[in-house]
Amino acid sequence: MNEKILVIDYGSQYNQLIVRRIRDLGVFSELIHPEELCDDHLLGAKGIILSGGPNSVYDQNAPKLPKLILDSKVPILGICYGMQLLAHTLGGKVTSHEKKEYGLTFMDILKPNPLTKDLSSGLNVWMSHGDQVSQLPTGFIPLASSKTTPYAMMMNQEETIFGIQFHPEVRHTEHGLTMIDHFITQICHARKTWTMPHFIKDKTKEIKDLVQEGHVICALSGGVDSSVVAALLNHILGKQFTPIFVDHGLLRQGEAEQVKKTFEHRFQMRLITVDAKERFLNKLKGISDPEKKRKIIGEEFIRVFEDEVKKMGQVDYLAQGTLYTDVIESGTKTAQTIKSHHNVGGLPKHMSLKLIEPLNTLFKDEVRKLGLALGLPEEIVMRQPFPGPGLAIRILGEVTEVKIRIVQESDAILREEIKAHHLDQDIWQYFTVLTPLKTVGVMGDQRTYDHVLVIRAVTSIDGMTADFAQIPYPILQKISNRMTNEVRGINRVVYDITSKPPGTIEWE
Ligand code: XMP
Question: What is the pLDDT of residue 333?
């Protein structure tokens, strides 16, 4: 059983960050909603962090402190709302302030304590609160104060329950990570065993126990998540695992070959490759609407996949590359659907196969680390995000073979130049988009009338918002020259300088 630190989710925008910081420090951590907390979650828990949140403890529907937490006798750290909730529940007092305290604040340490051990006597910390504790519960000691917050830190006499009004997980807080580290090591005595080899060992046991003699399949798309799922399951199950690679012909230049080379030859997997290019092209004939294209590709993918599975013998499980962010974000999305984001590689719900989601406790960067630990090449593991419907949504209007060639060739040039100029680490996603627009140009002495191609390159953290990447003009010039000279069918290249919002990253 892995030792872990539970983070109770009271709704702060920084919650995932707390979990990530703890994992970065080498201890497993997971985020649990207070109403979902049960005895099982507490197995292996060495400490509990109560997160911040938007509520006041006096709100009618304010989330409560589950009894289980205090009963568990596990050390507790309450952050912001978590501190107020502790004080309120244990008999202290919380008062509301009209003015919200937001930003960097200097805090004096009043008393030596395990959280700020070996740190200086004053620290700049990140505050973001309206309410604050105005009277400590009996048995609690004040540890720090700022100009506006008399109880910026508190602990009980036994040194097992702590409250801090500031956010240690935010980078602006001086020694924030050290304070989290002190909590997990010096107060909770958690061992730092959360490493990828450890994860692989745990998953091996878990999946072998579950699958027994059964057979597992997965849809391999060539993207990071499905590639790591395949490498992991191949490592654990060997011949009891078969990845199925549906080549819909809408991948980037050379990617289908790379998938086959990596998984068939290097990893010696029993890879089933389905060349379904014709099938997809036929289905997409005459279709221009982006959402219709997405739907057709998603559905056709499932059909091809099902056809292959029918040809196989006994199959018991379907593995999918669901990530931890998908798990904790599902159900909270109320936003309007801008794009349906059909993700090729998932979906066949009605196939009566049991589901295995071996990455559903991992963040994306951990998935990449796992991929490297399993021996996947960097070109796959560090790959930029690529949409399930592939190049079909980078060809505005109807998809044809010629247009796929234009996008593949121009995208290959862009990738080559971005890599050659070492910009690939800084730019989050970069690709080309073929427009149906035709303009007049001149090549040699000839008039041309050809398509306009767009270069799209953005910086982003998570794809939710993005800025256009500031690629130096001389590099853009070289890319544009190469594209107009080397790619037949275009005579003009433009650079998209729109951020998201108001633009989206993809054009469709
Ligand atoms: P947008 O264009 O919505 O893209 O700003 C945000 C991120 O999502 C990717 N994207 C998709 N991924 N299926 C996917 O699996 C889709 O239909 C899809 N549409 C957009 C896009 O590449 C970017 O990384």
Answer: 39
HEC string of 79-102? ECHHHHHHHHHCCCEEECCCCCEE
Q: How far is the CA of 436 from the centre of ligand 1 (A)?
A: 21
Round to whole Å and give the CA distance between 81 and 363: 25
Whole domain around residue 24: which residue ranges? 4-187
Q: Separation of 342 CA from ligand 1 center, angstroms?
A: 9
Q: How many structural domains is the chain composed of?
A: 3
Same domain for 181 and 55: yes
Q: Is residue 243 part of a domain?
A: yes
434 inside domain: yes
Catalytic (active site) residue 188: no
346 pLDDT above the threshold of 60: no
Average pLDDT over residues 157-173: 96
Instruction: Identify the CATH number of the domain in which residue 38 sits.
Output: 3.40.50.880
Reported confidence tier of residue 2, pLDDT bands at 50, 70, 90 = confident
Listed residue (166, 164, 141) closest to 153, CA to CA:
164
Position 125 confidence tier, pLDDT thresholds 50, 70, 90? very high
Q: Are residues 154 and 43 in the same domain?
A: yes
Cβ-based neighbour number of residue 159 at 10 Å:
14
Find the angle CA(471)-CA(474)-CA(478) to the nearest 5 degrees: 100
Q: Which residues line ligand 1 (CB under 6 A)?
A: 294, 339, 341-343, 385, 387-389, 429, 463, 500, 504-506
* 258-290 residue pLDDT tens: 999 999 999 999 999 999 999 999 999 999 999
- What separation in Å is there between the alpha carbon of 387 and the centre of ligand 1? 5
26 part of a folded domain: yes
